[in-house]
């Protein structure tokens, strides 16, 4: 995977539940577009609210009371109509400026075990609605793994990955968490584990507890997401920290100044030396800062009966063949938006040690940018000679093939990875 | 199998919270009805109970597009009438995939679900979020006697709100 020419014929897209990462093959940085259509609630005068598609959300004046419509549920595209509207926006002159689809090749990432209905719907969108020439789809976890490998080409000082090209990819994204062991470039499908908790569930949980305890925030999803990203962190010693937050004044507590929509649209964290003014509305975040990300580790907190991430990693790895387990524990790769929580990596390291036999080495890696890691892997895959060769032989469906065999050929080819 | 279906129900509810509440509510009913009817379809399979016919017209309208393929000519017409919820949600799609017919060794969306944790769930005070040792008769967990007056002052709906947060509501809506 040496060559890195930007190939404008291949559009690489990591179509995630929270944001869609898109760019051309061989590029280093994608454009990140929120994968959502947000509609402002109709105002009192009966005026229909404005709809913000994808990146137009940035221009939104007022983030409160937005109604979100997302095409993706648990990582799978269920609502093709919304997805088409969003892709139209992404391919428009404002973002990617692509018009000649008949000449282009689209490279999408997919989640494991995508239902056949969704695969064929997507094939219809790609070939019939947009009319792409070729369509490639590769497992998102494999792309993330590849992205991590390609990162070392840029940064030779980083830890070299083990020679067997094996890793456990823990993709904790917006609407799900998937744990995928990869052995010698091959995805171990039987050992994939999924946890139905992602960033969205965490934001909703924070929104609900804040609404029950302090202010009604049920309409303020955007704001709560901002607060979550700014204030929540993974506790390294949860029991100890829970004892700290018992006290009225403690070092974990932070005050968040809520937006007044004049000076600030999203609010900010109160600095210690700045006194409060009479107009400031303050949301104090105490145990919420740690209990919200804790849900990733103990989903039972919100009534889910699935295991937390460290336990699920152990379940996943121990279901692989015994000879692989050593190398897999030695390379745990964390990607996805939830990886951005402070201390997330350390906590996984710490928890894994509790579950895993001393004979196994545990090494946890975190790519420099866990959100776009998957896209970078896809981009470098599609931009390299070896990747292109693999793509054309097994992973790509051309429009001609589609017209000949229908969407079955997509189902067949894309279920291999 | 039945137990897993329950889980999906709960999850989709969780997701729906993201969308607008007031608008969501009006669909909640019909949504759960469609869920029920699809579940029934999957469960009994051979014969639909006659009860289904007796359901309200609203339900029939909602289930109709499910049985058609994606290219149903009615699709766009219906859409203009009732713009929302025309796509199937993930749970409906999964039901249609007939994963139960596959041998259990084949990995599918359903059986890659992480099994339950080996550790007992932690208990938190519903009011403050701190550790909790006590449970009030109405099901609310509380941290200490300081919180208890608040617990007793809650009305029934509020209690359900709190319990719903950790999905342990007892009465079904």
UniProtKB/TrEMBL annotation, chain A:
SUPFAM superfamilies: Actin-like ATPase domain. Pfam families: Actin (PF00022). InterPro entries: Actin, ATPase_NBD. It is found in: Cytoplasm. Keywords: Cytoplasm. Belongs to the actin family. ARP6 subfamily. This is Actin-like protein Arp6.
Automatic annotation (TrEMBL), chain B:
It comes from the Eukaryota. Its main location: nucleus. Transmembrane segments: none annotated. Residues 123-151 form the Vps72/YL1 C-terminal domain. This is INO80 complex subunit C. Residues 1-65 are annotated as: Disordered. One of its GO terms (cellular component) is Ino80 complex. The keyword Transcription applies. Residues 37-55 have a biased composition (Basic residues). It comes from Acrasis kona. It is found in: Nucleus. One of its GO terms (biological process) is chromatin remodeling. The keyword Transcription applies. Residues 7-31 have a biased composition (Acidic residues). Keywords: Nucleus, Transcription, Transcription regulation. InterPro entries: INO80C/Ies6, Vps72/YL1_C. Coiled coil: none annotated.
